[in-house]
Design brief:
This protein is of the alpha+beta class and 247 residues long. The protein has ten helices and six strands; from the N terminus they run H-H-H-H-E-E-H-E-H-H-H-E-E-H-E-H.
Length: 247
């Protein structure tokens, strides 16, 4: 009888260890997501990734106050950091609000309160990653219905703000014109210090400068099926364009 009990105890013990092993194995399977978490685009004022993950209490206050619905909360599919805020720039960039309300709403210091205005924001750096997709470089007019994807995103929100409506009105004005969307939709107060259109062989192309804050609006509004210009999170102008650090 004692032998049977011992066998049962051993079965439970090793079964539990086996389940734990499978769980850890699953962790290894999704580890690339964990490793790439630092490359997630965080809201304005986000401190270093390790510190951010330690400080963020996943309260969602930054999401609640964002007037452009730019901030999302990571789910299990995004790897570790479940419940932490991030921005999917292709879906909706950060529009660099003058008072930076997401930072003001953060109670834990995960978003540094020294970030008080758009010029203080340092989220990443924009890069013309896929020049072959840039319609400005081939002098192709902005196609009809280019903004439908963004209209659909706004219409899905429960409380559409006037700021969003104004943004859509401005966006629609580019239809049929030479594409300058990434430069002209840049939301920071001095956009020419961040991005401009320069002459290319058959048209124009975006050029990025030190004033770029990595807000991701250029990536959002790019009318190509896949964005020609993308944001590299957590990198600075010096990192990418001077030191040549790639991600």
């Amino acid at each position: 009888m004692a032998s049977i009990k011992n066998d049962r105890r051993d079965f439970i013990k090793f079964s539990t260890l086996g389940i734990l092993g499978l769980t850890l194995g699953g962790g290894i399977a999704i580890s690339p997501y964990a490793l790439q978490a630092e490359m997630r685009l965080r809201p304005p004022g986000a401190v270093s990734e390790d510190e951010f993950l330690a400080l963020c209490i996943k309260c969602g206050q930054c999401l609640q106050v964002c007037p452009y619905h730019s901030i999302k909360l990571a789910d299990f599919a995004k790897g570790h950091g479940v419940g932490t805020p991030y921005i999917d720039a292709r879906e909706r960039g950060c529009y660099a609000c003058s008072a930076v309300p997401c930072v003001l709403a953060c109670p834990s210091g995960a978003l540094d309160h020294s970030c008080e205005k758009p010029e203080d924001i340092k989220m990443g750096i924009a890069v013309l990653e896929f020049p072959n997709k840039c319609i400005a470089m081939t002098n192709t007019p902005v196609p009809k219905g280019h903004s439908q994807r963004i209209h659909d995103f706004v219409n899905e929100q429960r409380n559409v703000t006037q700021l969003e409506r104004d943004m859509l009105d401005k966006l629609d004005e580019f239809e049929g014109k030479q594409c300058t969307l990434c430069a002209d939709m840049c939301p920071i107060p001095s956009p020419l210090g961040a991005i401009s259109m320069i002459q290319a062989s058959n048209g124009k192309k975006p050029e990025i400068y030190e004033g770029c804050i990595g807000c991701g609006v250029c990536e959002e509004v790019c009318p190509a099926n896949e964005p020609a210009i993308v944001v590299k999170p957590r990198l600075t102008y010096e990192d990418y364009y001077i030191k040549g650090i790639k991600s």
